[in-house]
Amino acid sequence: MQAIAFVIMFVGLGVLGYWLVGRVDQFIASGNMLPPEQSAAKMQISRSVEPVAVHRLQEVSQPRLHVRAKPMRILAVGFAVVILAGALLLALPVASRAGTATPFAQALFTATSATCVTGLVIYDTYTHWSMFGQLVNLSLIQIGGLGFMTVVMYVLGFTHHKFGLAERSVMQEAISAQHLGGIVRTGRFVVSLAAAIEGTGALLLAIRFIPQFGALKGIYYAVFHAISAFCNAGFDLMGVNAPFSSLTSYAGDPLVSGTIMALIICGGLGFIVWEDIVRYTWHFRRYGLHAKIALTMAAVLIIGGAALLFVFELRNPEFAARPPTEQLLTSLFQSVTPRTAGFNTVDLTKMTGASTMLIICLMLIGASPGSTAGGIKTTTFALLILCIVSVVRKREYVACYQRRIDDTTIKKAFAVFFIYMLLTVGVTVAVAHIDHVSLRSALFEAASAIGTVGLSLGITPTLSVPSHLLLAFLMYFGRVGCLTLVYFIAERIVEQPNHLPLGNVVVG
């Protein structure tokens, strides 16, 4: 009954948050209203010209980015509302196992980590949070993984609510859909697919957890870890064995490790890719360009990352002492989880420096757009590589799979990459300075936060509140999306003239 009451309450908070976002959006949009004297002048003009002329005047006077910026505002503010609601719930005494109130700063960090499906935690999820607190975290993970607009629109769909153009635009941005048409149907597909994959994963995990923890607890653990893995969150309840141990006790278990890896990969492919997979099954040639690039990069990064980690860790005595099958399994798992799940089956602090640097790179790359994962995204990384190749081969355009890539898309890819790098380096230096930790640990923590991964070298609980706030900002930035947040902050952009004198700049 406690769980049912909690779910009803949290859905109510989600609908309330959606309503508040709408009110905030109207308030922000009201800033675009004309002053009274200009409004009166415009009214006078409208009485003296034809309706067609008024329509054209309105088209010219309205900023071009207003329609596009509105969904950005709703997404940015909406995630903040969900995080704040979760933090308030986690700060309640009932949310902690000890029955005492959790400091709001720590509750806010945990809520941000859960909603942004990151997995960085100050407290061990099992030992600190009660059943209520765990369910709050699990709900935040599910809402954050699917996108709060997806969940709200799916719930409102049962009330036969008619979705307007603005709501559909927000939904399009939330799941990175390429087309606005059929977006409600796509939203239902997203929720149905997530439920099917998470349910299958829970059934497989229950085979191992029920004999180990009992029927009810085993089912609960299976559902919790299936949702956490598919949403690429990295939250776990294995503190029942040892605090902050993650899945290290299952390093040689192919059932648990394999299921978690499959869930991570499924969640990280993105729902755009899954639409093509469901529609065209094994006919890869019929897939869209986005799906082809995403699947190719996922395979290259997983296999290539596993091979490099295996080679790098051969110099590690602890790794070399493991059986060969376990070496392969742990190498593959550590290659999958940085993109961007946050589980680990080995002690990351004991890995070699080369392996640590490789994991940092994988965390920054992340998974595919429109997925439950973060990072700069595999397609962004692929476009950067393709652009370099086109420059080396002196081609006039970037192409892939017999398709030319638009120049605007290439510019966005480079913008995303450099913004991520600047923020990562900036927070790394700040955390290292504030808490006097090594640059290696600070860089690992910053990359994990902005990539919404959740892996850590163990310094998260020891950091100060300013560092926690910086990491929370990176998690929020990584989940909401680089361009979404930039468009939200810089809503009004003065467009430059189409034709400017050509200037020459020497590069290289």
**Mass-distribution shape:** globular
Q: Assess the beta-strand content as a share of residues.
A: under 5%
Oligomer: single chain
- SSE string, helices as H and strands as E: HHHHHHHHHHHHHHHHHHEEHHHH
**Mean pLDDT, nearest integer?**
80
User: Largest beta sheet: what is the strand line-up?
Assistant: 1-2
Number of helices: 22
Main sheet makeup: 2 strands, antiparallel
Beta-strand segment tally: 2
Structural class: mainly alpha
Walk me through the structure.
The structure is a single chain. The chain is mostly helical. It is 66% helix and 1% strand. It has 22 helices and two strands. It has a two-stranded antiparallel sheet. A hairpin with a 2-residue loop joins strand 1 and strand 2. Helix 14 crosses helix 16 (324-336). The radius of gyration is 24 Å and the shape is globular. It starts with a helix and ends in a 19-residue tail after the last helix.
